[in-house]
Write a structure and sequence with these properties.
By secondary structure, this protein is α/β, with parallel strands linked by helices. Helix content is 46%, strand content 10%. It has helices spanning 13-17, 39-48, 87-103, 117-132, 167-174, 205-210, 215-236, 243-279, 282-294, 298-309, 316-329, 338-347, 353-365, 380-389, 408-423, 425-434, 443-449, 455-461, 474-483, 499-503, 508-518, 556-568, 584-593, and strands at 4-9, 28-33, 54-59, 65-68, 71-73, 80-81, 84-85, 109-112, 147-152, 181-183, 196-198, 546-551, 554-555, 574-578, 581-582. Helix 4 links the parallel strand 8 (109-112) and strand 9 (147-152). The chain has 23 helices and 15 strands. The protein folds into four domains: 4-59; 65-156 and 473-497 and 541-594, Sec1/Munc18 (SM) protein, domain 2 (Rossmann fold); 167-280 and 415-433, Syntaxin Binding Protein 1, Chain A, domain 2, CATH 3.90.830; 282-377, Serine Threonine Protein Phosphatase 5, Tetratricopeptide repeat. InterPro entries: Sec-1-like_dom1, Sec-1-like_dom3a, Sec1-like, Sec1-like_dom2, Sec1-like_sf. Belongs to the STXBP/unc-18/SEC1 family. It comes from Lamprotornis superbus.
Length: 613
């Protein structure tokens, strides 16, 4: 009797090093590589197959992890040494990214972040593979070619330091998600069956419907799930008095068992999240985090951070990340209170690890090395637009055929908005007069002169309804500009001449107009087999595509931003990926592993990135 073996390997080295083919244990071998294999590798395999046991060799492009319909990961940590790639990790990342492109049948145009040398290096490596294996990438051309945008995550060191309040992001931040598995073994009183649970949108309807909802909505939905389960439970436990009863029970039992497991799992997870939120005082901590990330009142922020550092309910990690956020936000403020905050961190006791990480995070993602202005609009006109963006006119005002009577609340809103416009009119005039390219009155200086006396009014002006979710990742702004065709070539250039771009006769203006008109629809980037849950439009090859590739990793808040962009722009299909999906702990571990040790300001002279901004 003949037996066969199927081996899935990253390279041929494993099977050759074991001399598996020279001394075969099986009569037939079917070998499937998860990426491109070179002709020299095929030759080496043939030479090792002295007994001719290899029946088939295939390339199966699956060298990455499909996390969600719009998210992938390579599950790699420690990719850089300082600001340069680790050579082995660069090779592995290039392999994973090219495998993704091949599995989605895309030969993209490539753009990269000019201010990032790692982003440029990765773009060059991907381009080299596409050029070398041009026959594999010879896919049917689309009217607007797909686009691969490679970004550097160090441009936004704020997002991974913030607490998140949507279900999936909270679970990853507070409990940790590893390949859809969550370790609950440390939960007090946990049963044996629930020490490890799986959260997968493909197999868990409740999770799929709630993963991007905020925590308050999750509480309501989990209550509804339990009530639905209780209504069904008595029917399933009725007496089995006939063959028909037994048959009905057997038919319905798998569904009942599945629902029982779903209820138990999510009640346990949500219960543990609630316990951690209360135990670590995360509501108050998160409010101050958002104030640091989104507001510019230095005195209020410093006072809030100091107050929380003195609270015994605030954990060592949460205290440190508040100081990290303060250090990034007010890095060059004339009245910086960072030394005093570091001293308060020291006085809290514990290890010096987090205290040293404060300066390490600034070295990693501080103002000297960022390619973008993370905390304020980039020019005066943008500042004015930001100021006016959230002004909400009461729905009854000025509409024909409606009652023009305003409620007391609406009247108060009008008075507050008009008062702020009058108070800051000089700011608006100066911003408009300075123009988008003015160097005399830059955005940061004008923003300092913008006075908002009341934070409640400020939130209303910005159109924010939840104080815990004010912050939006920088990635969202970048992709929004790209969708509108406004992402500047000078900041995100194309990587050299591209055959698809040039052969089609595109000019820069025509291409930007085409991208804007098509809204960068990304159908075809998502294969239903690779990304469960994608609808049929997602792989209609007549649509163009966009891949946003973070160099080197991304986090759940960015995945949420991409999800919302895909949902709010019907023609858009964006896939986001990175070397790993970070939470705060893993992000800080990688900052340390990259060699950022938090040297003092006197001894650390970090060269600024070259950028045209």
């Amino acid at each position: 009797m003949k037996t066969g073996a199927v081996s899935v390997v990253y390279t041929q080295s494993e099977i050759l090093q074991r001399e598996e083919l020279r001394r075969p244990k099986y009569s037939v071998y079917f070998i499937y590589f998860s990426n491109v294999i070179s002709k020299s590798d095929v030759k080496a395999l043939a030479e090792a197959d002295e007994q001719e046991v290899v029946a088939e060799v295939q390339e199966f492009y699956g060298d990455y992890i499909a996390v969600n319909p719009h998210v992938f990961s390579l599950n790699l940590l420690g990719c850089c040494r300082g600001r340069s790639w680790d050579p082995a990790q660069l090779t592995r990342t290039t392999q994973g990214l090219t495998a993704l492109l091949l599995s989605l049948k895309k030969c993209p145009m490539i753009r990269y972040q000019l201010s990032s040398e790692p982003a440029k290096r990765l773009a060059e490596c991907v381009k080299q593979v596409i050029t070398k294996e041009y026959e594999l990438f010879d896919f049917r051309r689309t009217e607007v070619p797909p686009l691969l945008l490679i970004l550097d995550r160090s441009d936004d060191a704020i997002t991974p330091l913030l607490n998140q309040w949507t279900y999936q992001a909270m679970v990853h931040e507070l409990l940790g998600i590893n390949n859809n598995r969550i370790d609950l073994s440390r939960v007090p009183g946990i049963s044996k069956d629930l020490r490890e649970v799986v959260l997968s949108a493909e197999n868990d309807e409740f999770y799929a419907n709630n993963m991007y909802l905020n925590f308050a909505e999750i509480g309501t939905n989990i209550k509804n799930l339990m009530e639905d389960f209780q209504r069904r439970k008595p029917k399933e436990q009725q007496k089995l008095e006939s063959i028909a009863d037994m048959k009905a029970f057997v038919e319905n039992y798998p569904q009942f068992k599945k629902m029982s497991g779903t209820v138990s799992k999510h009640v346990t997870v949500v219960g543990e999240l609630s316990r951690l939120v209360a135990e670590r005082n995360l509501l108050e901590v998160s409010e101050v985090e958002q104030e640091l990330a989104c507001q510019s009142d230095h005195s209020s922020a410093l006072q809030s951070v100091r107050r929380l550092l003195q609270s015994p309910r605030v954990s060592e990690l949460d205290a440190a990340r508040l100081v990290m956020l303060y250090a990034l936000r007010y890095e060059r403020h004339g009245s910086s209170g960072l030394p005093a905050l570091l001293e308060e961190l020291r006085s809290r006791g514990g290890t010096d690890r987090y205290r040293k990480l404060v300066s390490a995070v600034v070295e990693y993602g501080g103002k000297r090395v960022r390619g973008s202005d993370l905390f304020s609009p980039k020019d005066a006109v943008a500042i004015t637009k930001q100021f006016l963006k959230g002004l909400k006119v009461p729905s009854c005002h000025g509409k024909k055929g409606t009652d023009s009577t305003k409620t007391a609340e609406e009247e108060q809103g009008w008075q507050e908005c008009c008062g702020l416009l009058a108070q800051n009119w000089g700011f608006i005039e100066r911003a408009v007069a300075s123009g988008p390219d003015s160097t005399e009155n830059n955005g940061s200086e004008l923003l300092e002169s913008f006075s908002v006396p009341n934070s409640r009014v400020s939130l209303r002006l910005q159109g924010i309804e939840n104080v815990y979710t004010q912050h939006q990742p920088l990635l969202q702004e970048t992709l929004d500009q790209l969708i509108k065709g406004k992402l500047k070539d000078s900041q995100y250039p194309y990587l050299g001449p591209n055959t698809l771009r040039d052969s089609g006769g595109w000019t820069d203006d025509e291409q930007n107009w085409g991208l804007a008109q098509k809204s960068l629809g990304c159908g075809g980037l998502i294969s239903p087999r690779m990304f469960p849950g994608a609808d049929s439009r997602d792989w209609d090859m007549s649509h163009p595509g966009l891949l946003a590739r973070m160099c080197h990793s991304h986090w759940e808040a960015q995945a949420l931003a991409v999800f919302n962009l895909n949902r709010s722009n019907p023609g858009v299909r964006i896939v986001l990926g990175g070397t790993t999906i970070h939470n705060t702990r893993s992000f800080l571990e990688e900052v340390t592993a990259a060699g950022f040790r938090g040297r003092s300001a006197d001894s650390s002279q970090v060269p600024p990135r070259s950028s045209s901004r």
